[in-house]
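Pipeline run #58 for the internal structure catalog. This entry was flagged by the ingest filter as a single-chain record with no existing model, so it goes straight to prediction. Upstream metadata was stripped on purpose; only the residue string is passed forward. Reviewer on rotation: M.T. Logging verbosity set to normal.
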Amino acid sequence: MDRRTYIGLILISLAMVIVLLWSGNSQKKNATARAEYEQKIDSARNAAQDINEEATVVITAAQQDSLSPLFPAMNGTENVTILDNGLVKIGISSKGAAPCFAQLSGYNDQQGRSVTLFNQNEISLNFKIDGKNQNIQSRNLYFETIDNGSNSVTMRLNTNGYGHLDFIYTLLPESYMLNLDIKSTGMENFFSSNLKTLAVDWIQNLRQQEKGFEFEQRYTTLTYKRADKMKAKVLNVAPASAKSRKASNKTIEEPLDWVAYKNQFFSCIMIASDTYAQNAELSGISYLKGQGYMKKLMAKTNVSFDPEGSNPTQFQFYIGPNDYRILKQNSKLSNSDHKIRLNRVIDLGWPIVREINRYLIIPLFNLLSKWNLNMGLVILLMTLIVKALVFPAQVKSYMSSAKMRALKPYIDEVNAKYPKPEDAMKKQQETMAVYSKYGVSPMGGCLPSLVQMPVWMAFFFFVPNAIELRQQSFLWATDLTGFDDLISWSTNIPLIGNHLSIFCLLFCLTNIINTIYSMQQQQMAPGQEESMKMMKWMMYIMPVIFFFSFNNYSSGLCYYYFISGLVGIITMIWLRRSTDDKAILAKLEADYEASRNDPSKRKTGGSSMMARLEALQKEQERLQKQQKR
């Protein structure tokens, strides 16, 4: 590797650090103040009670009047109807006619039980419809359970002579989609003739499902997708401070396809099927470690409503895993005539990185996963295959460095010719002339290195979102989506925590070895000694930054970077031993002689860059002479 390769690697590292700083700033906490704050919390149950407190509305004396249109629904007995299709089990409560329980089959929590996404104390889903004399707030009313089938149920809101309102739930077979139709019958006198919309208030506490709190909270988001956009957006929820919880708010005036409450590996997504959600008010609050919850998310929105009941208001809810293939399959079950793209709830990175994940990393991972191998071996094979794909770029980068190294005798002659500092400009010009003479560009190794950066970043986004790696063990790591803590202790150490990730240490170690070996191989151009010293220190400091940043990250991600770095070192050693600088120089001399005799064979690679560099140097020399005059 030469300095151009390092430019590419530094750009990769800087991009990585930017991502880490951006995502990691939200995780910093004051340990002492946090301990004092957590002592005031009796239990995680107190956090869930926030839902009930916000969901409680006092019924006034006027509402208790037996002549009130909603009097039949003001009192009753709550019962829960369970819908179960073998993949997901959802409870629908007769009080509020809303989901109050969701459990997934085939996925276990940290205690080995089926994953529960929410229970009655952790969710509030309220439908509000304005009436002429009295407004409907579904969460305060009791519905009658009718037409209870194996995968469907109708919850009916009876009135005092004003018709009824039906909430019809249907759990689609072999899917994670729950359909909801809201239809009024005979309620023309209850609603105003100009009523066009109903409002939805959705509040939910998202449970901690994984081992690493900081890492999971980073991937717990309120995500939404605008109807006219392909990409989903995320509400940036402010981190919880040690003394208070500050809510983050945002109003979206544009229509939305869906709003998602997303954990790292599971999501609850509300889809406005027959129309778009309008004027959504989104907000969220982060919890502190130890409360049992990641974030409290809230959404208020409006959708169309037909008071005459001719066109039922349709919703769909996706309650299931963040599996890219499953999300794509369930998107096809949408009742709407537009593409809802539920798979966009998974953040696969920036545009070019996302496309690499979609068309290279994910298909390759799915192919290798079919072989029923250990997931650690799958990551190993993926690393080797991806390394093979970028190998030509690595060879090109190395050969550019090797050519510069082969020309070192000529560069040494130029350095000896201009030993004085005031002749630095002339020395650079003659150096560039030597490179141009033999068709070598100092920037020749930069672009091939940059080609590898999107792949490096693609894994950074893919591995933490791959639910297939969840609770999969490899070597000493018990869960490839969480940190490996074979070495751990009880006391929390700033910047490190209470554990030491071995895969993270190996990853950082290979970075250091790679840096040392590459620095020994590189050839510096004249006048770049000082800048290369700074670059050298940066390359040595970078693994230290990686250690403090990745110690809490996915062990599968650190394992990939370790294997990738190890393969890179082996490849570099092999290339160095398989190339002969004298043979390369002889080839450059032969090519130069051939181009002298036949101008059509003259190499033009990097000529435009060399011409610009030479022109820039001449202009600098002209300005220096002008200043002396």
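catalog note: The chain is about 40% helix and 25% strand.
catalog note: The first helix runs from residue 3 to 24.
status: ready for reviewer M.T.
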